[in-house]
């Protein structure tokens, strides 16, 4: 009887219908989330474990890395890795992989869905019909805004940011972007000042990476520069926006509207956002399609298999 290779799995992949079963079929999986004392579980089962699988939701701390003396690879499900201690992994020579590219189009599609839903009051109109408002009051819902021909600002022009920008061409939009560095390989105008980009834009889409380096990058000043006719869309990470400042800007009328797939303290969402008809809310579903989740699962497992076969993951995080 062949002995299965032992791995550590930090959390259950609830967002994928088959990932847990596929891992359990091929590997001896230590299901860390089932242990009330993780530290004791790692001490008991961690010796000899060279691969850990996780996601941005579950992360991997320096303490966990230190508790696994034989760890050589961390394979993460998803594109984000801000909850994985990359520096601790690098100090130990531990490879870290994520699943880029496979979710780019679905996240970009959702950004546009949020943009159009906010501008054309689609979520508001849906509630209006469902609650019997149509026909019960004079007129209909408040007017929305045109999307075509408007000015689109993008914060972060990586894979997803570029996919969002390309879709702007189909709507005859003027596209500009802000990022840490100007790119010479794109046809879009660069704006070195995030505040000036917000002041120029009608729609500002946040598509940058998460983590300490971008926390509250979208500040009160940026939100107010976007202005009472502007819309902020976030499909990146919740903490990139100062959520307290966002609520205050919306309530005061200094910001027009918001369309959000992510929040600063998920799954908690401020009641002020829930009650505001100028806000569209989604429960962090940017990659939540059958096709994308399957491809994310496949790539995570392919990284795991590649490490065990060759000693190298396929899509390493190179930060």
Automatic annotation (TrEMBL):
List cellular component terms (GO).
cytosol
Task: Note the superkingdom of the native organism.
Answer: Bacteria
**Pfam families reported in the protein's UniProt record:** 2-Hacid_dh, 2-Hacid_dh_C
D-isomer specific 2-hydroxyacid dehydrogenase catalytic domain location: 23-317
> CDD domains, per this entry?
HPPR (cd12156)
Molecular function terms, GO-annotated: glyoxylate reductase (NADPH) activity; hydroxypyruvate reductase [NAD(P)H] activity; NAD binding
Alphabetized, the UniProt keywords read: NAD, NADP, Oxidoreductase
Q: Does the keyword Transmembrane helix apply?
A: no
User: Where is the D-isomer specific 2-hydroxyacid dehydrogenase NAD-binding domain positioned along the sequence?
Assistant: 113-286
Question: Which residues fall in a coiled-coil region?
Answer: none
Give the protein family: Belongs to the D-isomer specific 2-hydroxyacid dehydrogenase family.
Report what the protein is called.
Answer: Hydroxyacid dehydrogenase
Where does this protein come from, organism-wise?
Bordetella genomosp. 8
Upper classification of the source organism reads:
Bacteria, Pseudomonadati, Pseudomonadota, Betaproteobacteria, Burkholderiales
């Amino acid at each position: 009887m062949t002995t299965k290779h032992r791995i550590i799995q930090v959390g259950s992949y609830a967002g994928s219908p088959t990932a847990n079963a596929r891992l359990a079929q091929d590997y001896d999986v230590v299901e860390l989330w089932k242990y009330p004392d993780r530290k004791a579980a790692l001490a008991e089962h961690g010796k000899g474990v060279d691969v850990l699988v996780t996601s941005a939701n579950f992360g991997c701390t320096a303490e966990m890395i230190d508790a696994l003396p034989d760890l050589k690879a961390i394979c993460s499900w998803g594109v984000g890795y801000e909850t994985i201690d990359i520096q601790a992994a690098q100090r130990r020579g531990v490879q870290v992989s994520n699943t880029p590219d496979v979710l780019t189009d679905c996240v970009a599609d959702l950004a546009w869905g949020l943009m159009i839903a906010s501008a054309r009051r689609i979520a508001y109109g849906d509630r209006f019909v469902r609650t019997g408002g149509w026909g019960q009051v004079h007129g209909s819902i408040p007017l929305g805004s045109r999307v075509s021909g408007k000015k689109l600002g993008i914060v972060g022009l990586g894979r997803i940011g570029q996919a969002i920008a390309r879709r702007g061409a189909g709507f005859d939009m003027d596209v500009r972007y802000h990022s840490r560095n100007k790119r010479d390989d794109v046809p879009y105008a660069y704006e070195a000042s995030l505040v000036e980009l917000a002041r120029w834009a009608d729609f500002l889409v946040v598509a940058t990476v998460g983590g300490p380096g971008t926390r509250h990058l979208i500040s009160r000043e940026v939100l107010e520069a976007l202005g009472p006719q502007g819309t902020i869309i976030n499909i990146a990470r919740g903490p990139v926006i100062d959520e307290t400042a966002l609520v205050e800007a919306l309530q005061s009328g200094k910001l027009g509207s918001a369309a959000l797939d992510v929040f600063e303290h998920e799954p908690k969402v401020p009641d002020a956002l829930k009650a505001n008809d100028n806000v569209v809310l989604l429960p962090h579903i940017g990659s939540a399609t059958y096709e994308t989740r399957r491809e994310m699962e496949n790539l995570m497992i392919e990284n795991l298999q590649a490490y065990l076969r060759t000693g190298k993951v396929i899509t390493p995080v190179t930060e």
